[in-house]
Amino acid sequence: MVRINQIYINGEFVTPHGTETFNLINPANNQKIGEVTLGDEEDTKAAISSAKEAFKTFSKTTKQERIAYLEKLHIAVSKREKELAEVMVEEYGGTLQFCKMSVQNAISAFTTAIETLKNFDFEKTVGHSKVRMEPLGVAGIITPWNASNGFVCTKLATAIAAGCTTVIKPSEMSAQQTQLIAECFHEAGLPKGVFNIVNGSGHIVGAEITRNPDIAKISFTGSTVVGKTIAKGAIDTMKRVTLELGGKSPNIILDDANLSEAIPMAVFGAYMNNGQACIAPTRLLVPETKLDEVNELAKHTAQKVKVGNPNEADTIVGPMVSEKQYERVQSYIKLGQEEGATLLVGGEGKPQGLEDGNFVKPTIFTDVRNDMRIAQEEIFGPVLVIIPYKNEADAITIANDTTYGLAAYISSSDKERAERVAAQIDAGRVSINGFPHDPQAPFGGFKQSGIGREYGVFGLETYLEPKAILQ
Ligand code: NAD
Questions:
Q1: Which of 344, 401, 408, 431 has the fewest other C-beta atoms within 10 Å?
Q2: Do the Cβ atoms of 409 and 251 come closer than 8 Å?
């Protein structure tokens, strides 16, 4: 049993004032693996004061000094790469394949920030004036459970590049992962108060970050519902917000695509991170004339997907993070049948032999209409919906007929055609023929998928305030 009973404030691990505890459960077998003591408002206020004090000097650091801090962080996090992946598998249930990649992303957040910083001018001339890009102040960082340390590292690296100090509130369900990353950050030897980490619940620690006048900006990744609560609360003190929220991303298979490549890729994509990925391509849009062929290929692929122990190298789908999340996914599988969609593969209940954990059968619905709730709402589990379309224009209309706009995917053998379609899709990122990653390209959502962008220059500028000097 692991007991996590410290938080990180002003350069040291301290016992929180809060006394409430939260159980940490292994989602693969629902056994209790540990306990975390949660911080409260008082702890959050102490963390914010420490970050506020540190900002006075950290905001004046040079580019070279910040690059040196980012290099130290990169080294410290890299050293514990293996442990970081192992604890993510145990506590979160992500597959080994996914967790290794996620930890790689966390590590590369620091090198990406260094690269951005090297090429960024904090002073420019605009019109006849000098414009100085000033760090905003203390940034509140609030993150979800589905790739906890990846989000923490990306946001912290960008804040540091900008000269901001931080108070980080990860998901309480990720406490072991948080403990490990806090140890890495501590080892990097940054000035006291530059980063503070408070374990705690959203309605206590998250709410204090949202309310507190000494927080200048919030960078939040999580659900659209909570994002709206934060945005409403943040306006009272006019905090800047970056919100990375939910998605229901369309994957358009154009009629000239190679189906035998595109469909298996589409199924694996929908199941990425056990289906608990904001960018997952969960709506598969296919030409109606090819629906039978697509159904056959999709079913065949899903039946081959290995569900089970996330520690095994060939597992594709591990357990849902919690029993609550399992129940949520089950309710959508039931709903899809009630709405009249055709269940192609999977369905309700746990796969045989995996009754102890929060395992879901990889599921596909076909003949889905885009106005069904299973096509409109984020399920956050391994459930793919196949929606037939009549022609290209119809596909674009269906793709955009959603309140979300985080990501979109297009498969075609004609790149120019795919780009023409991409230009008409309302989403922050449109990927053509696969799932390429570009850590310098802006990441964020149109519509209710969020506000603002992360990564690269776009991400850095959200931690800066332009000041024009006119003479
Ligand atoms: P969540 O919104 O429930 O929680 C996210 C964080 O917000 C947690 O740390 C939580 O404690 C905190 N929180 C909860 N209530 C709060 C409040 N009232 N005030 C302040 N903070 C509060 O999300 P989750 O269930 O942890 O994660 C899943 C969601 O995250 C999905 O909707 C998914 O799409 C989204 N997500 C988005 C992205 C993206 O980049 N756009 C990436 C990953 C996940």
A1: 401
A2: yes
101-127 pLDDT, tens per residue? 999 999 999 999 999 999 999 999 999
For a mutational test of ligand 1's pocket, the pick from 141, 145, 146, 241, i.e. the residue with the most ligand atoms closer than 8 A to its C-beta, is 146
24-36 pLDDT, tens digit per residue, is 999 999 999 999 9
The answer for residues whose C-beta is within 8 angstroms of residue 180's C-beta and 6 or more apart is 80, 83, 84, 87, 149
Domains belonging to the chain, first-starting first, are 2-245+447-469 (3.40.605.10), 250-432 (3.40.309.10)
CA nearest neighbour of 74 among 40, 44, 113, 39: 113
Q: How far is CA 295 from the centre of its chain?
A: 30
Q: Give ∠ CA 258-260-262 in degrees, rounded to 5.
A: 65
Strands (E), 67-122: none
244 is catalytic: yes
**Catalytic residue, candidates 91, 244, 378, 454:** 244
- Counting Cα atoms < 13 Å in the Cβ hemisphere of 303 gives 8
User: Distance (Å, rounded) from C-alpha 154 to C-alpha 459?
Assistant: 10
Contact 322, 352 (CB under 8 A): no
Rounded to whole angstroms, the Cα distance separating 384 from 202 reads: 30
Nearest CA to ligand 1 atom 10: 202
Tokens of 419: 């780009």
> What amino acid occupies position 379?
I
Strands (E) located in 173-331: 195-197, 217-221, 240-244, 250-253, 283-287
Q: Report, as ranges of residue numbers, the positions in the chain whose pLDDT lies below 70.
A: none
Q: In whole angstroms, give the CA distance from residue 449 to residue 46.
A: 32
Q: Say if pTM beats, i.e. exceeds, 0.90.
A: yes
Task: Say if ligand 1 is within 6 A of residue 207 CB.
Answer: yes
Strand pairing class (250-253; 283-287): parallel
- Supply 143's token pair: 């993150």
DSSP string, 75-134: HHHHHTHHHHHHHHHHHH---HHHHHHHHHHHHHHHHHHHHHHHT--SEEEETTEEEEEE
Whether 278 is catalytic is: yes
From the list 91, 278, 378, 454, the catalytic residue is 278
Closest CA to 305 of 253, 260, 261, 266: 266
- Rounded to 5 degrees, φ, ψ at 431 are -105, 135
